[in-house]
From TrEMBL:
Pfam families: HTH_24 (PF13412), ROK (PF00480). This is N-acetylglucosamine repressor. Transcriptional repressor of xylose-utilizing enzymes. SUPFAM superfamilies: Actin-like ATPase domain (SSF53067), Winged helix' DNA-binding domain (SSF46785). Belongs to the ROK (NagC/XylR) family. It comes from Clostridium magnum DSM 2767. GO terms for biological process: D-xylose metabolic process. Keywords: Carbohydrate metabolism, Xylose metabolism. The gene is nagC_2.
Amino acid sequence: MNKLNAIDQETIKVLNQKKIIQLLYRNKQMTKQDISKELKISIPTVISNVKELIEQGFLDEAGVGESSGGRKPTIVRFLPDSRYSFGVCITKDQVRIILTNLNLEIIADKSLDMPEELDNFNSLVLQIKKEIDHIIDINSIPIDKILGIGFSLPGTVDEKKLLLENAPNLKLKNISFENFQHNFQFPLFTENEANASAYAESFINFNGIISSLVFISITEGIGTGIIIGDNLYKGYNKRAGEFGHMTIVKDGKQCNCGKRGCWELYASKKALVNEYRKKFDDCDKKLNDFLELSKSNLLAKDILDNYLGYLAEGIKNIILMLDPRDVIIGGELSNYKTLIEADLKKKVFQENSFYNQEECKISFSDLEENASILGAALLPMEKLFYLNEKII
Ligand SMILES: [Zn+2]
């Protein structure tokens, strides 16, 4: 056998194993015969690959199924606790750390307050490491079953270089996670917060339902993650989807990024809260207090209406640029879906000669505050399910 053939054989074997893992991940358990039928690969190939996957701990045999004549078929089962992954989500206010199994079930969940001044990122990483070691310890997780740690970060990220390039809201630039790798016994992964959320939304529907989507994460700023044809689209310089900084008001408010009139200054959660606080001259109330007030108070209602106008303008621009099947809104605002959904859709689709609601679906994330951290925990799992990385 020549060298190229040997590589091809190996690639086919790895690909078949990933297909079997994906199939059983979705279906929990199946007979070897059904796996063979579904994936259109021969029974002997299924048997040899399943044997290897059992040896690696991902599957086990769980009895026998009904026979359609002849020997009863063996049932193979996916084992979600065969591997684990950590997700770490860093925001302006806090660091949240979760441990999940392969089913993305959260086994441990811990939040730390962000220090007032983040002058030493290294000490924050050491604090995260301490928490992770503690979680491993109290849950008795074998180190060799941990796939890695995925970080969700609020800024532009080069995931190949493990580099947080620019996070204006944290006032951080060029933080290399490669420098922190030696602190941990398993690999680190990094991704932008909105990209991680988009990845989680698309993966959780990874049978192909959502293969074209834009996730709009409305927090202190606005981040957007783009999924095109099942892949995360990051662009040539890894900065695609910085829609929070597209100009929505010419010569408008001054932004941290250096530009004026950026979308996030008008349509982020922070923008909405600031507007409420200014107009009501009340700096203590939180977003949920004001949103509750919007149900009955005319001034509060007016502020929300104006805000939704800015949010809708940005969404209209994004739809025109990318033509996504789904636009999914995440962040605290998604908890107020019933209050804002109808008005927002009206503002996006009324007087819109290009799109209607059947052609582009706007919805709110069911993953709620977990979207980005589950996306982060998914990063180390990617290689289990896919042959190629899902980033373009
Ligand atoms: Zn900006």
